[in-house]
Structure to design on (43 residues):
């Protein structure tokens, strides 16, 4: 439901070409977590 707003804010901080990202929706996270952080790195 908030993808449009997230994309607007993301575009302000990460102009094109933007870094890789992923988004997914779940009913709940383990241990009542509010967020999950994923890291993508190039070495």
């Amino acid at each position: 439901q908030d993808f449009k707003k997230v994309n607007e804010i993301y575009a302000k901080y990460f102009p094109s070409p933007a870094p890789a990202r992923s988004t997914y929706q779940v009913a709940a996270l383990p241990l009542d977590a509010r967020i999950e952080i994923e890291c993508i790195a190039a070495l």
Q: What stands out?
A: The chain has one domain: 1-43. The chain has a mean pLDDT of 86. Residues 3-13 form the longest helix (11 residues).
